[in-house]
Design goal:
It comes from Wenyingzhuangia heitensis. It is found in: Cell membrane. InterPro entries: ABC-4/HrtB_transporter, ABC3_permease_C, MacB_PCD. Its main location: membrane. The chain has 407 residues and is an alpha+beta fold. The protein folds into two domains: 181 residues, no CATH class; 204 residues, no CATH class. 57% of the residues lie in helices and 17% in strands. The chain has 14 helices and twelve strands. It has a six-stranded mixed barrel. It has a two-stranded antiparallel sheet with strand order 2-10. A hairpin with an 8-residue loop joins strand 7 and strand 8. About 4% of the residues have low confidence.
Length: 407
């Protein structure tokens, strides 16, 4: 207990070194953990949400935007395509499933997706409560939405036009909750699922009101002949379709075909450079913090060698002197490491909440305990080396010479 008190007293006596050591080590830990968490979030989004989607067909534009909007639901769509044109593509003998999705509305920032019953199978989603959609204006909620908004079976709500929450452009048709999915840890947890007819009906009424306001006659048959969807999610029976169909669609139609895995791998290549640079910076800061800790320990030993020698004359062993230094160092390192973890978690959530307007659609993946242990092991290994190098003067200390010299 007395050794601990001596160590704490040493920490208090050199507040400047202590604060700099804690700050630099916490900063490097934050950057290293933050980068790992961002990588894990990206890889999880890719691997967990696109495994059953080989191709996305949508309006011409950026293929990456089409993938981000239709698969990960993290961007605005490139536009709409005609439903009849999409159905023709889905009839190909090379295609196993072709699932249409249509969106453009939200409820409190959560995207409402009109689709077919096969959509849930892309994410292995099963019902926790209620039933699937049987008719227009019914919805099934993803797990996170039901939990965050405290919605239950039988509840009703009004959707808003657009993908961001607003109170200015609210539709007049009520949607009724008929089911809630179990948690999947996939993007469907943060989606509101309905059928295509619900989307068409809401926007049909909107168009109808617009035409009536202009004094024009609205023909319902014309509307139905021009049904539109946002995109088509395709799964192939064999790699043959993957090799031939995208090129054919891009060349011969007014639509575009994008391959989710290819586009997201390409995105990862671009972002990977940034990850590497930040990681290098983090390791440089880590080395600097380790050097500061080493200098701090060594300086403390040199400055207090008289008192350390005095301890030896009162019966303290080299091991006990080492304990004083070790307790001091590991106290600083533990505080810095825990602070780094807190800064990494808090920083990422703050960054996503501020910079990502569509935050509800993004789930930050937590690191496994092994990730923390790996970095913790690296930190403590370097610190142990610093301690062992710094205590060399203690091991070689001549007690009588030190005491007489100081006198």
């Amino acid at each position: 207990m007395r050794i601990w008190k001596i160590s704490l007293q040493n920490i208090k006596s050199k507040k400047g070194y202590t604060l700099v050591s804690i700050f630099t080590l916490a900063l490097s830990s934050m950057l290293l953990l933050g980068i790992q968490q961002l990588k894990k979030t990206f890889q999880y989004q890719v691997n967990n949400n696109i495994e059953k989607i080989d191709m996305v067909v949508g309006a011409k534009g950026s293929p990456l935007q089409l993938v981000l909007s239709s698969v990960l639901h993290m961007d605005n769509p490139t536009g709409n395509i005609l439903y009849n044109d999409a159905k023709k593509i889905g009839e190909s003998r090379l295609i196993k499933t072709a699932i249409p999705i249509s969106y453009g509305d939200n409820y409190k920032g959560y995207k409402i997706v009109g689709t077919t019953k096969e959509f849930a199978s892309l994410y292995n989603a099963v019902l926790d409560k209620g039933r699937e959609v049987n008719k227009a204006m019914e919805v099934v909620l993803g797990h996170d939405i039901a939990k965050n908004l405290e919605l239950e079976l039988g509840d009703t709500f009004l959707s808003s036009h657009g993908l961001l929450e607003n109170d200015l452009d609210v539709h007049s048709e009520y949607l009724t909750v008929v089911g809630i999915y179990k948690q999947t840890n996939k993007v469907i947890d943060r989606l509101i699922i309905t059928d295509l007819e619900s989307i068409w009906e809401v926007h049909h009424h909107e168009k109808e009101e617009h035409h009536h306001d202009d004094g024009e006659h609205y023909h319902k048959t014309e509307h139905h002949s021009e049904k539109e969807i946002t995109s088509l999610l395709v799964t192939f029976k064999s790699p043959t379709g993957l090799l031939t169909m995208p090129k054919r669609i891009n060349k011969n139609t007014n639509m575009q075909a994008a391959l989710p895995k290819y586009e997201l791998d390409k995105l990862y290549e671009y972002t990977g450079v940034g990850f590497t640079i930040i990681s290098v910076i983090a390791y440089v800061i880590f080395l600097v913090s380790s050097l500061i800790i080493f200098i701090s320990i060594y300086k403390m030993i040199k400055e207090q060698r008289f008192y350390l020698a005095l301890f030896r004359t009162y019966g303290a062993s080299n091991l006990q002197l080492l304990q004083i230094i070790a307790y001091e160092t590991f106290t600083i390192v533990s505080i810095a490491f825990l602070l780094g973890i807190a800064m990494a978690k808090g920083g990422l959530y703050f960054m996503f909440s501020i910079l990502n307007a569509n935050y509800q659609q993004t789930r930050i993946q937590d690191l496994a305990i092994t990730d923390y242990l790996e970095l913790g092991s690296l930190v403590f290994t370097v610190v142990v080396l610093s301690v062992l190098l710094a205590i060399y003067p203690i091991v070689k200390m001549n007690i009588s010479t030190t005491l007489s010299h100081e006198k």
